[in-house]
Amino acid sequence: MTLPEHPIETPPRAPSPVHGFGTLAVHAGSPHDPVTGAVIEPISLSTTFAQTSVGKPVGLYEYSRSSNPNRDNFEKAVAALEHARYALAFSSGSATTANVLQSLAQGSHVISVSDVYGGTHRYFTKVALTHNVHVTFTPNIGDSIADLIRPETKLIWIESPSNPTLSLVDIRKVATIAHQHGILVVVDNTFLSPYVQNPLDHGADIVVHSVTKYINGHSDVVMGAAAFNSTDIYERLSFLQNAIGAIPSAFDAWLAHRGLKTLHLRAREATKNATGVATALEASPLVISVNYPGLPSHPQYSIAQKQHRDGMGGGMLSFRIQGGHEAAERFCQATKIFTLAESLGGIESLVEVPSAMTHAGIAKEAREASGVFDDLVRVSCGIEDEADLVADVLQALEKAAAEPKVSSGLKVAENGRDHA
Ligand SMILES: *Cc1c(COP(=O)(O)O)cnc(C)c1O
């Protein structure tokens, strides 16, 4: 099944929620167990469900790949938080991307921001091509999109903020042009979470998440989700979800749903912490520059102001350190609260050096063209205390500036590995 040729009568929107985000996070998709009254849903491990006569299941379920109570409830919660009529959960963020791309007809053309997530770039260039879907990358989609559209362009792929330089895209501006040509707009909203940004409200047709990051938020589940308003998209993507079978387990859906219930609290703390850390870094003579959408110095600060909840910057930032790549490595080894690791969006704060870790697979020239210099450090702020995180960053900067070259060297990620 493929996405429709000219899909863009705007589908009806989800009804405006009566309740605020926190109330929805706690209650959407969380019915009490009708039999026991349990306030928290049980984990439904059964793979199959009894039928009273042939083709007449007792309840809503037949077979767990097709649908499962825990996945259903999680999907309802994600839909509520993204102001969507529908959501679907997948086994990973990458499987979500694959399902969306798989829904395009052979010969389709896609336009993508160039500093897209590494795994998405790999899927676009190494997998989509094999069913004859071609992707054009652009560093400045807001201005270049009109020139890049071809008759066979079917999809625009946006990440805002981008990884790891945190540059923003005006979603409304891109969606307005795309819709004039009958093109769907997808936004990967992983870096901000639905608490900080709701792309469907700015004209996007599909929002995707690596649930692995903020939505689950506890660094213990790999999962993905897509949310949208169109019944047509729902029919096509749920058909593929079942046909391809890249579905999360009941246990993972249950865990991710538990994580989602505190998303608003975590996202607020992470933003507060990142704002404190970014401000301290910007004031330090040991720092060349800071990329954080919550700082007035950010080149697209005005986009953050109109597109993010209360202009929040989110929990992610990156900065260039004085002293080159060695100083960046020393910094990441000198932090005591921030753990040196890939991934993001969990309760714990993390640091990494993109040029040697998450983005090592990209050629140096292409990397630097999008601002990923060897001295760039990426920071994911967790929900520890702001004062402790700021103090940790400042002491690590001093150490990185003072100490001689480290000998160990960070591991260099192999090409083709997963990079979060
Ligand atoms: C991690 C990530 C993905 C991929 O998600 P997985 O759950 O690791 O498959 C996609 N997009 C962004 C922005 C990510 O950070």
Automatic annotation (TrEMBL):
InterPro entries reported in the protein's UniProt record: Cys/Met-Metab_PyrdxlP-dep_enz (IPR000277), PyrdxlP-dep_Trfase (IPR015424), PyrdxlP-dep_Trfase_major (IPR015421), PyrdxlP-dep_Trfase_small (IPR015422)
EC number(s) on file: 4.4.1.1
GO cellular-component term (any): cytoplasm
UniProt keyword list: Amino-acid biosynthesis, Cysteine biosynthesis, Lyase, Pyridoxal phosphate
Any GO molecular function: cystathionine gamma-lyase activity
Residue span of region Disordered: 1-23
Pathway: Amino-acid biosynthesis; L-cysteine biosynthesis; L-cysteine from L-homocysteine and L-serine: step 2/2
Biological process annotations from GO: cysteine biosynthetic process via cystathionine; transsulfuration
Cofactor: pyridoxal 5'-phosphate
N6-(pyridoxal phosphate)lysine PTM positions: 213
Top class in the EC scheme: lyase
Heme is among the record's keywords: no
Pfam families, per database record: Cys_Met_Meta_PP
Family assignment from sequence similarity: Belongs to the trans-sulfuration enzymes family.
Protein name according to UniProt: cystathionine gamma-lyase
Source organism (scientific name): Massarina eburnea CBS 473.64
